[in-house]
Amino acid sequence: MADDLRVPALCGERIHRDSSTDSHGTADQQTAGRQTGMHDGERCMEALRIIPATLQDATVLFRLMQLYYFEASAWSDEDILPEGLYDSDYADVESTLREQSHWARLLWLDGKLCGFVLVDDVDFQGRRIQELADLFVLPKFRGKGIAAAVVTALVTPETGQWLLATFRDDLRAHDFWRRNLPKMGMTFEIPVDGADDATFNRLLIRAL
Questions:
Q1: pTM beyond 0.85
Q2: Each residue of 157-179: b (16+ CB within 10 Å) or e?
């Protein structure tokens, strides 16, 4: 994967309404690349940049993750800790950035920080697979197709099958991905044991 991914200009809001997105959360929309859905007269944004986070970005990433956990608490039912933070350890963020160079990427649009995406390598049904673990877009930037553009940029035919999960109670995100993944040039299937998870709806996705 390229160190600094640049997604073609994002134009309009053609797939639907959004929220944030994550593999454990909600959905921002639109796809850039395989399908832009551009209409005449729509304003195009500059190219979205997806830049690997380094150890120097640990504080920025940690702060963005706190915003994400706050929003996701509506579905995760997670309580805030007495010190006013959600359960994410800064030292763990630093160590993961140090040990896994592909784990976190910061999202920039028009030169402004607009979110992050985390990618994990996980054991799933007896094999190693990449998971879109968390994908968060700041509210100001939603409705521009950022989340779907990120997924389109990362999940390519060369990268094989990925795992994507949404909180079971986040029906909007679940419906969004099932409805729009085919429009993004992707197939999906429900894992055999996917219905048994009490917390997440899981999909296996692949780019055509």
A1: no
A2: eeeebbbbbbbeebeebbebbee
